[in-house]
Amino acid sequence: MRDETVRLALPAAGEATERPISIAILAMGGQGGGVLTDWIVQLAENHGWVAQSTSVPGVAQRTGATIYYIETMPPLDGRKPILSLMPTPGDVDVVMAAEFMEAGRSILRGLVTPDRTTLIASNHRSFAIGEKIAPGNGVADPGAVTGAIGVAAKTEIIFDMNALAIAHGSVISAAMFGALAATGVLPFDRDSYLSVIRAGGKGAKASVETFEAAFDRTRAGAPEAVELPRAEESEKSRAPATLDAELAKLLERAKQELPDSALSLAQAGLKKVVDFQDIAYGAEYLDVLGALHAADRGAGGIDRSFAFTQTAAKYLANAMTYDDVIRVADLKTRTSRRARIEGELELVQGQVLQTTEFMHPRLEEIMGMLPVSFGRWLDTKPRLMGWLDRRINRGRRVRTYSLPWFLVLYAVGGLRGMRRRSRRHAIETAHRDEWLKAATEAIRTNYQLGVEILQCRRLVKGYSDTHSRGLSKFDRTLATIKLVAQREDAADWARRLREAALKDGPGKELDGVIQTIKSFA
Hints:
The protein is α/β, with parallel strands linked by helices and 521 residues long. Helix 1 (33-46) packs across helix 7 (190-198) and helix 20 (447-455) packs parallel to helix 22. The protein has 23 helices and nine strands. 54% of the residues lie in helices and 9% in strands.
């Protein structure tokens, strides 16, 4: 967890009433930014103040937070003040950010200033779409935000308000309301805040508990231990004692055949492979990994803590659990997925969950489910392929939990018994074997190069177009590695190629490294 900060200097009651008190709230969908805004407005009006709120919506989920803005003050000499509709840089008293990087964005916008602003922010992360879709690790570095907060804000209250809210069965807006009350920026007592929450009726009890915890946490200024609810375990990720006997035998086999340094990764990979397909597929995973470990021993891997086997244990499992139509349908109809969504939305009894998802299967994905021979026959019929593509390759909005669509997805997810005879599986297996052959041949003369080739599997991930782009980068990277395989610095060049491919989606940086290699290879 990031550093927690509570640097608080309480103002005297009644301060800052000769001019409006301005509050900016940055929150995403589902975090209760609108409710928090209504609470603050109601709080002010309950004391005879004039309050005005506006909002500027963000664009979709995690591509932008909604900015709520409030100005409030008591009437002067019976006259109502004229209040602003938007925050002005350098003129905001309180900034409340429901996510850590949103706090950073508020600083960049100039809303947080050292002579004036109290910054209240949760230090948890909700990753932006740009962070999630990056080919490699696209998570933004929070260090710049952490450093900026201590300089930019007059007062800062930073801790994991989301975890605190979850622990008390509420949402982050209640925690932020408690932190606001503890700062004393608004000259109203604690009971006034609580009365506003209690007037909300449904869900008020959990919100009050969250408010109280955040208020005490802010005033105390010391980190508070928050016990988070445990994520639901999948049937294939529990302790070996609770697994069926066949999987337990495979786990024991892994313990007997593989080095200690690779065991934890191998057992995790084994569970993933079995969850993807079946016990027989798990045995195949151990067979292939065992052959790679034998090559590792022959290449002197014991002197390197069997780094080759460790890397293979992870990336072989990823290669064997590719995302096909069957896998996607299976995951979307699992009980654990629905339970996770219900938990994230904090559904209560009597509420109904319905999800609409955008699905865009390509003809290649549908053909991948066909038997190998039939798929090859279709490849020889371009006109038929074109006719099918025009009818299949289009987006669909699927109501996952409506009975018709759920039955369709459930039936497709149940086709895993056909997977190992499918066209897609044959293609994936051939591609996997070619990759492992290249890595195994490399360690005979350059051990680290073999490890780097295994790590190139990071480039292949996802589904549909995402998978195609990653696979193209992977193939180009391996082809270029062959050009430098005889050089002493081949492993360094392989690492540069992989990192370049991971950095940007379009692949321009990868093109640059490839051109450099071709200039001297």
